[in-house]
Amino acid sequence: MLVSDFARFRLHDLDEGISHEFTLAELHQQIRHFGFIAGYQTRTFDPEDPVNIRAAEQLGRLHDLLKATGFDGHPLEVFLVRVLFCLFAEDTAVFERRQFQDYLENRTSQDGADCGMHLAQLFQVLDTPPASHHTTLDEELAAFPYVNGQLFREFLPIAAFDSRLREALLDCCALDWSRISPAVFGSLFQSIMDAKARRAAGAHYTSETNILRLIGPLFLDELKAELDRVKGNRHRLAEFLSKLARLTFLDPACGCGNFLVIAYRELRKLELDALRHARKSGQMVLDVGQLIQVNVDQFHGIEIEEWPARIAEVALWLTDHQMNLAVSEEFGQYFVRLPLTKAPHIVHGNALQLDWNEVIPAARLDYLLGNPPFVGKKEQNTQQKIEVLRIFHNVKGAGILDYVACWYRKAVDYMAAKPVIRAAFVSTNSITQGEQVSVLWPDLLQRGLKIHFAHRTFQWTSEARGKAAVHCVIYRLRPAGCGRQMAL
After folding, report:
1. How many Cα atoms within 13 Å fall on the side-chain side of residue 258?
2. Complete DSSP assignment for 25-43
3. Which residue, of 139, 316, 358, 367, is most buried by count of CB atoms within 10 Å of its CB?
4. Across the chain, what does the average pLDDT equal?
5. Which pLDDT does position 99 carry in this prediction?
């Protein structure tokens, strides 16, 4: 129900029992509350929302059904990432409301026999500029936007659908994907992998709360304090915005990109806050698209499995779109980055065998962060044990080290080229207790490592079911000679 005296508005939500009051001048900032007119439902963000788990399970079911038909490996992984993008797109205003779902319902037969063909054609359209569309192209297909970004570029074999597969895909469409937390991609991946493979890879997924425990003291708290200092100075505020756009990040064990996604989201929030102050100081905002400088290509990752690497890419793109909607709401201008012209740099490979400088040269990096895999010495497979001994080849007793120790050693060697790089990892607390301490830390400290801050042991929490029963610590590391060492 809406009442107004033409200067003020009061909107009452009958379902939620909540009222919103605002002035006419604030209308453009409150437009999200009117989404029901276009068929959208207003949702509050809750990282513990059960819809996260339902989404993971339903996409996992689609994965299993497709795999059972023989559609497997790389084609299946790319196909599911494309489907995931489309599911998000129609619930977050990249596509029209229900555009993807309506196309499937209207154009594909109930037995699903032509569903794979229609999806292949849709993916081709999403990678084709409108000017290059065939004149005979179906109008419903032609209405989809040009996405680009290499997401739909690769040619895939056509998946063979049946009625069960079509129904599983439509069940996915029925969920409201705008409610999905970025942290769900870890649990989504975990729901699809089998338990044995998951344990072998050390694939556990950090909750958003614990990610913020790391990125806050690593860079976010400092940047927020800097913004507070410069927000009243137009020149220094412009310099601060340019600085945000130059920062670079690397997660050398990125999984589905949870750390990168939340770090990117927080950086975009900080940029938006800075732009608010710029507007208050009298700077005109003519085209907000020219003011937004932070982008996904500032974020780099390494992931050993291809499926989560692709999920990390699309998760960053979708987070970018969510933040673009926030910008649109703030400034009353529709801002969307389509077609996608920049992409995150997620490398599919073994981080312990790659030279990290090939992903991003240390001279260009600002922050190294993440959650390297937790595999104890007893759980390590033969290849992992070989990697530990190779990386710590000159360290006596290295065979007792947890697998995660390899990332600390690689990080120290990598940061030597640029002493101002800051790094922070989440690790099991086993590396700070018992026999590992006398093996790992003397080697790292002799190489010039300094501990800049540490977070005491805390209970692990995860967005996924089957949560890991471990206790963790967080370390922020800096090479010697790049600032004071903080007391622990």
Report:
1. 30
2. GGGGGGGGGGGGGGT----
3. 316
4. 83
5. 94
Count of alpha carbons within 13 angstroms of residue 48, beta-carbon side: 2
| Residue 339, preceding peptide bond in cis (omega within 30° of 0) | yes
Residue 312 has pLDDT above 70, yes or no: yes
The secondary structure of 78-123, three-state, reads: HHHHHHHHHHHHHHCCCCCCCHHHHHHHHHCCCCCCCHHHHHHHHH
279 — pLDDT class (breaks 50, 70, 90): confident
Q: Which helix (H) or strand (E) holds 63?
A: helix 51-68
Tell me the mean pLDDT in the region 350-368. 95
Instruction: Give me the mean pLDDT over the 70-77 stretch.
Output: 90
CA-angle at 95, arms to 318 and 44, nearest 5°: 55
Which DSSP string do the residues of 208-225 spell out, in sequence order? Answer: HHHHHHHHIIIIIHHHHH
Give me the count of residues in the chain.
Answer: 488
Q: Which of 72, 52, 74 is nearest to 64 (CA)?
A: 72
Whole-Å CA distances, 47 to 32, 170, 184:
20, 24, 8
Amino acid at 215: I
Which residue is associated with the tokens 């895939």?
A: 156
- Which domains can be identified in the chain, with CATH numbers? 2-38 (no CATH), 51-180 (no CATH), 199-479 (3.40.50.150)
Average pLDDT over residues 447-473: 63
